[in-house]
Write a structure and sequence with these properties.
The chain is α+β, with helices and mostly antiparallel strands and 342 residues long. The chain is 38% helix and 18% strand.
C-alpha cells in the first residue's frame, strides 16, 4: 500500500470521529473516540440518539479492505448477531446487535463519494480473556473466574447451537469480559466465520481466518463436512485448558508451518495438566485427582474426531464445572482446617 494511499486512509479514519452515521431504521450513531483497528476495519465508541441513549461499538469497514469475501464475512456477522439478538430476552453472554447499514461519505480533500458498511453492537466495558491471560504471564487464572467464563461461554454456545449456528472462531480474544457488579460477565463476539448448518449444507473450500490452536482438525478439511457444534466444543476446551494451565493446548510456534500444528492436532494430546506444576490455577495444584479427571474431560473434548467429543456444550460444561467446583470446595475446606489449627 503506497504512502499517499495510507495517508488518505488515515485522514478518512480521523474524519469519522465526531460524525453521525445514519442507521437502517433511522437512528443516528455519533462516533466518539477510536477504540480499535484491524486489517479490515476500525472500531469506535459511539452513542445512539434513540429513546434509550447508550454507548455502542461501531465497526466500520475500511474501503481498501472491501472484497467480496470480506464483505460477505462482515454481513454474515451482522446477520447472525441480528438473529441471536431477536426476542424479548437475548442471551446476555452474546454481544448484542443493534444495527447494520452503509454510510455514504465524501473523504477529506476528495470529491469522490464512498460507501462504508458499518455494524452497531453493544459496547462492552472491560478486557478480553486474551488480555487477562497475557497479564497472568503463563499462569492459570483463579478458578472462580474460570468457572464464570466457562459458564458464560457455554450459555452463549447453547443459544448459538440452538439456532443451528456454529461460531467456528471461538478464542480468548473473542471472549469479552464485561465488568459488572464487582466481577466479570463473559460475552462471546466476532461471528464473522459463523456457519449456519442446514439440511443442504453449503460447503466451503477454505476456512480463511480460523485461529490456529483453537480450530480443530475438521476445519481444515476441504468442504468442512464434519464442522458442527462439536467444533465449538473443541475451542471451548482449548480455552479452559489455557485458563487453568496458563499454556495453550496446541501451541503454534512463530514461523511454524501450519501443517505441523495440524499434524499435532491429529496425532498428539495436550500436555497433562499436572506437568504444568506451579503455573496451574491456585486451588488445582494440590488436587491430583481433580487434575486427572480434568485431563479426561478436556482430552475428550479435544479429540481429533468430532464424533467422539461430548454430545453438547451443556454436557461439557456440566462435567468440567463439577470438577472445578470440587477443587474450589476442597481448597476452601483445606484453608479452613489450616486456619483452625493455627
Amino acid at each position: 500500500m503506497s504512502a499517499p494511499f495510507e495517508n488518505r486512509l488515515s485522514d478518512l479514519r480521523d474524519s469519522l470521529t465526531g460524525r453521525a452515521l445514519l442507521g437502517a431504521r433511522g437512528a443516528s450513531y455519533f462516533l466518539h473516540e477510536q477504540v480499535g483497528e484491524g486489517g479490515q476495519g476500525w472500531a469506535f465508541r459511539g452513542a445512539c440518539d434513540d429513546a434509550a441513549p447508550r454507548s455502542v461499538l461501531v465497526k466500520v469497514m475500511k474501503p481498501a479492505s472491501v472484497t467480496l469475501e470480506s464483505l460477505s464475512r462482515f454481513e454474515r456477522e451482522a446477520h447472525v448477531l441480528r438473529e441471536l439478538s431477536e426476542g424479548e430476552a437475548p442471551n446476555r453472554h452474546i454481544v448484542r446487535f443493534f444495527d447494520h447499514a452503509v454510510a455514504y461519505l465524501t473523504p477529506p480533500d476528495s470529491g469522490e463519494l464512498i460507501s462504508l458498511p458499518f455494524t452497531v453492537l453493544e459496547f462492552v466495558e472491560g478486557p478480553t480473556l486474551a488480555d487477562l491471560l497475557a497479564e497472568a504471564n503463563g499462569h492459570g487464572l483463579p478458578l472462580a473466574l474460570v468457572r464464570a467464563v466457562l459458564c458464560g461461554v457455554a450459555s452463549a454456545l447453547e443459544a448459538v447451537h440452538a439456532k443451528r449456528i456454529v461460531h467456528r472462531d471461538l478464542k480468548p480474544s473473542n471472549v469479552l469480559l464485561s465488568e459488572e457488579g464487582g466481577g466479570f460477565v463473559a460475552k462471546v463476539t466476532d461471528f464473522g466465520l459463523a456457519k449456519v448448518v442446514e439440511v443442504s449444507l453449503y460447503r466451503t473450500v477454505t476456512i480463511a481466518g480460523a485461529s490456529l490452536g483453537y480450530a480443530p482438525a475438521e476445519q481444515f478439511e476441504e468442504g468442512n463436512p464434519r464442522v458442527g457444534a462439536c467444533t465449538d466444543i473443541f475451542a471451548a476446551a482449548a480455552i479452559v485448558y489455557q485458563m487453568v494451565s496458563g499454556a495453550e493446548a496446541f501451541p503454534h510456534r512463530v514461523g511454524e508451518n501450519p501443517l505441523m500444528l495440524l499434524s499435532r492436532l491429529i496425532r498428539t494430546k495436550p500436555t497433562p495438566l499436572a506437568r504444568h506444576g506451579e503455573a496451574l490455577s491456585p486451588g488445582l495444584r494440590a488436587h491430583r485427582d481433580v487434575l486427572a479427571q480434568l485431563d479426561v474431560e478436556l482430552g475428550r473434548a479435544l479429540l481429533p474426531d468430532p464424533a467422539k467429543r461430548h454430545a453438547s456444550i451443556a454436557e461439557f460444561h456440566e462435567r468440567v464445572d463439577a470438577l472445578l467446583s470440587q477443587a474450589i470446595a476442597a481448597s476452601a475446606t483445606y484453608h479452613s482446617a489450616f486456619s483452625e489449627a493455627q
